[in-house]
Design goal:
Blueprint (H helix, E strand, L loop, with lengths): L1 E3 L2 H8 L6 E5 L5 H13 L3 E5 L19 H10 L4 E3 L3 H4 L18 H4 L3 H16 L3 E5 L3 H13 L5 E5 L19 H6 L2 H10 L5 H10 L3 E9 L12 E10 L2 E10 L2
Parallel strand pairs: 1-4, 2-3, 2-5, 3-4, 5-6
Antiparallel strand pairs: 7-8, 8-9
Helix pairs in contact: 6-7, 9-10
Length: 269
């Protein structure tokens, strides 16, 4: 497995591969990331991953400085999965000067996650475009846990006419249903036992046993601080209209000091 720290090193290594599937990550890898790698292996003979904690998508009060960084362990996991190339740039490599040119995503980026994390998707879209330009993959794999992010990345690729296939991967869950996330490591023992409630409530909405309002009340009663829990259309994440069928319930809530997100797809009507 090659590890490239600079763009020149990356491009030299990349030149040896005819086609490449790509998994962008921020490191602190878990089984969910490795599932993305296995899906990438089905897309191309060669697989690349990136490890980069992107400052542009963190607000000043968020956890950029304490975000878990486990580079050696991450590389061991990726090598065991047969990854061919890891791009692990320092911040000065991807941002050698202040990033004055940014990708401005569409208005949906200011709703749901964007309402509570201003400019988050601007930072995501900007770094994804930079990584795509550096790695030049034929396909890239993104998890459905970050449902709104997946939607925005798909739009980015479509509107910039990038020759990249975006492949969606189902959310990987713990046995009790909690969506795997690097931030789960922040949870205390008691919070970890409580955390699956979010997915259970989303499942109850999907099955018609609960309403979004009732689920929000249940979260608050259990000590959570909900940001949102909404049903949106899958195709564009707009509020559903009469006659719409394909929908998704999306939620974000804080449990103690840890903010968790999740979603489930559902059928309306």
């Amino acid at each position: 497995m090659r590890v490239a720290r600079t763009i020149d090193e990356l491009r030299t290594a990349r030149a040896a591969f005819a086609d490449l599937a790509f998994v962008p990550t921020m490191g602190n890898l878990h089984a969910g990331h490795l599932a993305l790698v296995r899906i990438a292996r089905q897309q191309a003979r060669r697989v690349a991953a990136s490890i980069f904690v992107n400052r542009l998508q963190f607000a000043p009060q968020e956890d950029f400085d304490r975000y878990p960084r486990t580079f050696a362990a991450d590389c061991a996991l990726l090598e065991a999965e047969g990854v061919d190339l890891v791009f692990a740039p320092d911040e000065g490599v991807l941002y050698p000067e202040p990033q004055a040119y940014v990708v401005e995503p569409p208005p949906i980026a200011n709703q749901l996650e964007g309402q509570f994390r201003p400019r988050f998707f601007q930072g995501v879209a900007t770094v994804v475009l930079k990584l795509f330009n550096c790695v030049q993959p034929a396909s890239a794999v993104f998890g459905e846990k970050d449902y709104q992010q997946l939607h925005i990345v798909r739009g980015l690729v479509r509107q910039f006419n990038l020759p990249i296939e975006i492949v969606a991967a189902e959310t990987v869950r713990e046995p009790d249903g909690l969506a795997m996330s690097s931030r789960n490591s922040y949870l205390s023992h008691a919070e970890r036992a409580e955390a699956p409630r979010l997915y259970r409530l989303l499942g109850a909405i999907r099955d018609g046993r609960q309403t979004p309002g009732g689920a929000l009340s249940a979260l608050s009663a259990a000590g959570w601080q909900p940001d949102y829990l909404e049903i949106r259309r899958r195709e564009d994440l707009a509020p559903p209209r009469p006659g719409d069928r394909d929908a998704v319930a999306l939620a974000a809530a804080r449990l103690g000091n840890t903010r968790l997100i999740d979603n489930v797809e559902l059928q309306l009507g």
